[in-house]
Amino acid sequence: MIGRPANILPPEAVPIRLEIASGGARFGAQALDILITFGGLFLLFWALIWANVLDWSMLATLFFLLVFLIRVPYYILSELVWNGRTIGKRIVRIKVISADGQRLTPHQIVARNLMKEVEVFMPATTLLSGSFQSGWVGLALTLWMILVLCVPLFNKRRQRLGDMIAGTLVVDQPTAVLLPDLAATQSTAGVGFVFQPEQLDVYGRFELQTLEQILRNRPKTEEQRQRVSDVVHTIRRKIKFEEDVAARDEWDFLTDFYRQQREFLESRHLFGDTREDKFHKTGS
């Protein structure tokens, strides 16, 4: 499945175009996460079976209990720690974001992962356990899982039920590379505006890439010039830049900010401080 574009409007009012993660990428990430969560558990139970310390009924009960107690914290904690990414998502390079462009909140992460239990894992666990008398119950659970697994196929943003309830999207996270030709062009220009370290510390690499997209082409229409003006205003307010910027100097302001921001981030990266986005101070 080919990735679909999604236009996200963050609070800075600079539209960001991201690619919705394909079904194959999401399936691959889920498969890896299942291997991670179940792999260690199977090794533990193999040892218990070999030692013959518990009977089969107790082993089955313990197995299904531990599956729940390991799986749910794994998904929630990993997405909290890695800003919307589990180990599987990190490997296939996809991540969860908030659909409204705001910061991904713990409430959204918990909601989407608890819904995953209701959508797939709990019905699948019930089917595997065979803890029901009527065959109609098994058929109903099977139909439920098929229906919820088909939901992402019938909406443009490929959201499952948990994503719809939590207000989240799963998007591709390609390798972040700041294009060298633009950096070289900006580094040779004279510096008209100077920014302090505390001002450059506000944004991260994600916002710098967005600014780079704007600087690729000078504004030619009134609408494009107004967009540049809006971006300048947003950045000035965000970094508390008190100096006035005339309309004729707004492009120079952005290019100077881009160059100095890039140099600042690269210098921080040398010390092992990789700042992905504007939420780095809060530990996202």
From TrEMBL:
The keyword Cell inner membrane does not apply. The chain crosses the membrane at residues 27-49, 56-76, 135-154. Keywords: Membrane, Transmembrane, Transmembrane helix. InterPro entries: RDD (IPR010432). Residues 21-167 form the RDD domain. It is found in: Membrane. It is a multi-pass membrane protein. One of its GO terms (cellular component) is membrane. This is RDD family protein. It comes from Salibaculum griseiflavum.
